[in-house]
Amino acid sequence: MTNEYASEVEDLSVSACWALLRAGSIGRLAVWVEDHPEIFPLNYAVDHGSLVFRSAEGTKLAAALSDVPVALEIDGYDASSAQAWSVVVKGNAEQIQGLQDLMDTVDLPLFPWQAGPKGRFIRILPTVVTGRRFPVADPSVWRTPLSEAKRSSTD
Known about the structure:
The protein is α+β, with helices and mostly antiparallel strands. It has a single domain, classed as Roll (Pnp Oxidase, Chain A). It is built from 5 helices and 8 strands. Strands 1, 2, 3, 4, 5, 6, 7 and 8 form an 8-stranded antiparallel beta sheet that branches. The longest helix is centred in the first third of the chain and has 10 residues. The chain is elongated, with a radius of gyration of 19 Å. InterPro entries: Pyridox_Oxase-rel (IPR024747), Split_barrel_FMN-bd (IPR012349). It comes from Kocuria gwangalliensis.
């Protein structure tokens, strides 16, 4: 990436990242499973400087609760400014187990897309929160003479 394009990327402050996380509810959880990464879409809620999600037993839960750190990413696009943004949270996940902690999480707005028993509450304790915002390039930037010729021949 040249400096010209790099200057268009805005690194978001941690507080701006948390504002975007609070405004969202859907992310992708990246975990390590055996010898490869896996990514799972999930619903989350912000709770006192951490992220909480519900899960059933399975690969996602087992990998999240292993000793390997996890990452969660959310992103979006603002059509009015033609800018995209991305926030990444890295940290460790732990199961919420204490009675009072569980009672506090029951009222969080956690609405998984997939039905079924999702009685396990998991908290991601962030060690790193980063984000960036950048203008989305006009599609014409990526057109080549060959792609234009193909496009013209189909019209």
